[in-house]
């Protein structure tokens, strides 16, 4: 039975969420009624330890005693001032009642703000359920929306189909599809055969029961891709958050202004007022005992004078005024954050004669809107949480602003291309101009001579007449010339070399697939490995070098990209003359467009990345970084000049992936006196993703590959320099690998390669992953030397290789042969680019003497790189890696 048959419909999910929210709200109300009097008193605004309140029981008690005392002293007043003390006492009682009412209203609004929000949510759900057409509205994001830390989405079955649902809308009983390596969004339990699997929120889902690439009949068997597993949600995730908001909403820490006010008010009520009252009472009592002249009745001397002296330190109207000022300040802040149409009109007519009139209308509108918001604040209808947390106090007392989340807030949700590495032609081949076209018969004769002469060179035939004549007759099929000397051999050797170049030229011109690429191949002697002196092969090598048949020199180029000022979502090259590298960048652009910008291809790539991430977390020792889908690479293709319509003639036929497990040294290989390997920073899993694409226009098959540079380099034997295909030298490989390692430690780096296919890939590997045997990823001689050098420097981990002749069997090359001999196109490094508005915001904070601190969940190097992009001082503790 399919998972969607067990999934909930939208109506069922909304009803269940509605019922659970109602139950939570009822439970919260019940808890509030069941509280003891001690708990109620501790949370009451009159409690002396309540910091958010501006009226406490000492101040209220002093005001009440002062009012009662003044009213009680009305009979002892002079005839001309009778009734004044009664009025004063009544005024104190009115002020006390006003303060109690205002602060009591504030406490009630504070305690009801969160429950009111929950009730509004329940009412919105009721409105949705009463609308019969809301189920038919496609309100869900695309399934393959790039993941972001600020947007939590989850594949969920709703209404019989798989949708990308916000995590906050998940309810108990929902069926979700959890991908390998994905974090559990809620408490989950597996269904069917996975019922024993229980995941808590935040756990990483890994599949342990799928060993990679098992050996079957001494042959590497590709392993099937790990599929997303169905899980049932056993707890609604949003309920826990709502419970915390209801229970802890009124326990938020006090602001800086509230703390300062509480400190000053406590000193006045607990120290200054009692001290003044005690001193006045002692002085007046002494005067009354000793009959000081002018002393009135005892009611005036012992009661009224003390009240008159302590009145200045009592909170007469301060609590009410403090509440009114805070409400007005909150309204002004909200007005500043709100874009008004009148403000736009003032901006338009700023230079017009009607400016004064529009400015007056604008000021009146702001004044009316401010008092409307004040009224809403006192009625509990403010759009923001102004009672639970004061926006005015937070912005008015801030000195340090800290931010933890990065993706989608400080930066764009996905990576953006930052640097592009490729090769460019620096000099031309001098021998190409001497080549002339020839007929088919001449070409065939030249090919025959070429085959024979190459065979002579490979066999290292000694320089004697009998040996050469017999070998020539055996491999050429015709008797050797009567005079076979060194000069004639050199002449035939040159003709054979010219024939091979001519063959490549004619093949290129007759093949539409290579219309933009022509080969310049030179049969250098090191391909034939002549090591013995005195052979004609070594003499031929000297001849080739003397005639200038060397590989055309190539230069490594790196172009940087930055955000487009006109469209911040796009990127552009920093070099205004980047078009001179069009020939080198176009293959990179079309490879990126076909492999990373098509929705179907991205879906396959995401599945491959999930499988590789599971292997990186479980199979490699130590664990590598999970493989991420290179989101945002489409911007590179757009910057180069490609549009989405350019991929129309191409069709994806097959896709596969290959990877290499990273292992540390075996325990038996580590001597007791040697230190164990310590890995400070992790690199991504060595992998490559291959896509077989069919060109409908020419009917040709093409293989596009992307992945980590170490695996891509091992599969490449040549490189593209913008005009020619050149062999990949050891020094060029070293430069590329160094760039990749630096870029991977600071962000994300992707290598791309290409290969024309004369035969399609083996259908057995379609949609599967292949584990490269130990050492096979370094099959190329140059790359093996480079890897050994990197091992000596400590940049790579030594492989724990067990001797196994089965892995060296030619049968194992069946799946991997078509992945070899690729053409290297370039590297693309990506970084999280800081949003320009956030950069300006941080600069404004700096001018306002507010320090911005970035707490990063990544390592120190990545945190430092991104902090520099935001303009922070990386030498100071403005970025902290957690």
UniProtKB/TrEMBL annotation:
The keyword Glycoprotein does not apply. Keywords: Membrane, Transmembrane, Transmembrane helix. InterPro entries: TMEM94. The chain crosses the membrane at residues 55-74, 86-109, 271-290, 310-329. The keyword Amino-acid biosynthesis does not apply. This is Transmembrane protein 94. It comes from Latimeria chalumnae (Coelacanth).
